[in-house]
């Protein structure tokens, strides 16, 4: 008998396209609450909505692997896993290489392969859904954005992390010719 698992994934980015953008990703498993995730988008690189959406798929796949390991590791007859990950981003679920975010697409592809090739195997399907059907994952993604905003405010000297370097905002302080 197969083991069926469904997840809803969403990413969010505030100030998308700007140097001070922050992002988060959320995953909801209605029948596997231990798999729920709400994480700040790692940086660098700079947060974008597309990266947040792809990162949400990765979080969902990682949670599925954890569940698959827990169910199958000591089972005499491990079940075949059937996984459906619902997302409201056509970009994220219909993505193939080459793309700007190839690093995340490749990571998601590798995680999907790990699920499909482990134990007795599995099947992973990505399914597009309207945004209105992705409420819980959206809530988790926005919670992560809230935490990212708070982390951003706590950085000393109004520093913004972008492109792997810190940029200091000197607009509110006097600057000398020695400032770079």
From TrEMBL:
<dbReference type="InterPro" id="IPR012337">
    <property type="entry name" value="RNaseH-like_sf"/>
</dbReference>
<dbReference type="InterPro" id="IPR002156">
    <property type="entry name" value="RNaseH_domain"/>
</dbReference>
<protein>
    <submittedName>
        <fullName>Ribonuclease H1</fullName>
    </submittedName>
</protein>
<dbReference type="GO" id="GO:0003676">
    <property type="term" value="F:nucleic acid binding"/>
</dbReference>
<dbReference type="InterPro" id="IPR036397">
    <property type="entry name" value="RNaseH_sf"/>
</dbReference>
<feature type="domain" description="RNase H type-1">
    <location>
        <begin position="1"/>
        <end position="154"/>
    </location>
</feature>
<dbReference type="Pfam" id="PF00075">
    <property type="entry name" value="RNase_H"/>
</dbReference>
<dbReference type="GO" id="GO:0004523">
    <property type="term" value="F:RNA-DNA hybrid ribonuclease activity"/>
</dbReference>
